[in-house]
Amino acid sequence: MNNYISVGKILNFHGVKGEAKVGYSKSQRDFMESLDVVYLLKDNNYVKKVVKSVKFNNKFAIIKFDGIDSVNDIVEYKNCLIFVLEDDIRKKLDEDEFLIDELVGMEVFVADRLAGTVIGVSNNGANDLLTIKSSSGKICLVPFVKAIVPCVDIKAKSIIVEDIKGLIE
């Protein structure tokens, strides 16, 4: 069974040659450029589409799909989510890159003590942030950078965070 991961959404058409205006996470620009095959979720079915080209403007990706050559062809996919196969994403991840769903739920340790649990991941434009619910119940944002988060162990479902006063309370 295939696992699909959402990477964007077709917001509208762009121009008259069947290009799609796509909303996506700005931190994923390089990944979007590397897309070869995607799946559009239309009427609860995943429709496979080959990506012919990807370019960018200020706010959106502009994607051209093989076989979609007019406004009439692309408009039927307006508001469709764009997915890729999880296995395809994993092949493109660097050693120190992770999927958000892998991180959420992981235990966070500071100086060998359980400090909390990851409840989300966001991006502030400069880097990713781990949203951690501390053992005391407070919500803390921790920059997800190697200097602060030196170890992520997917198998053990644990993350080690440097002991910085006031970071996780």
CATH architecture of the largest domain: Beta Barrel
Instruction: Please name the fourth-level CATH homologous superfamily of the largest domain.
Output: RimM
* The CATH topology of the largest domain: Elongation Factor Tu (Ef-tu), domain 3
Unreliable sequence segments: none
> How big a fraction of the residues is strand?
over 45%
Fraction in helix = 10-25%
Give the terminus-to-terminus CA distance: 41 Å
Descriptors:
mainly beta, Elongation Factor Tu (Ef-tu), domain 3, SH3 type barrels, 6-stranded mixed sheet, 12 strands
Secondary structure blueprint with pairings:
Elements lengths: L3 E11 L4 E5 L5 H5 L3 E6 L2 E12 L4 E5 L5 H5 L5 E5 H7 L7 H4 L3 E4 L2 E11 L4 E7 L4 E5 L7 E3 L4 E3 L9
Parallel strand pairs: 7-12
Antiparallel strand pairs: 1-2, 1-6, 2-5, 3-4, 3-6, 4-5, 7-8, 8-9, 9-10, 11-12
Description:
- With 169 residues, the protein is mainly beta.
- It has two domains: 89 residues, Elongation Factor Tu (Ef-tu), domain 3; 61 residues, PRC-barrel domain (SH3 type barrels, Roll), CATH 2.30.30.240.
- Helix content is 12%, strand content 46%.
- It has a six-stranded antiparallel β-barrel with strand order 1-2-5-4-3-6. The protein has a six-stranded mixed beta sheet with strand order 10-9-8-7-12-11, with no helix packed on it.
- A hairpin with a 4-residue loop joins strand 8 and strand 9.
- The protein is elongated.
- It starts with a strand and ends in a 9-residue tail after the last strand.
- The model has no long low-confidence stretch (mean pLDDT 90).
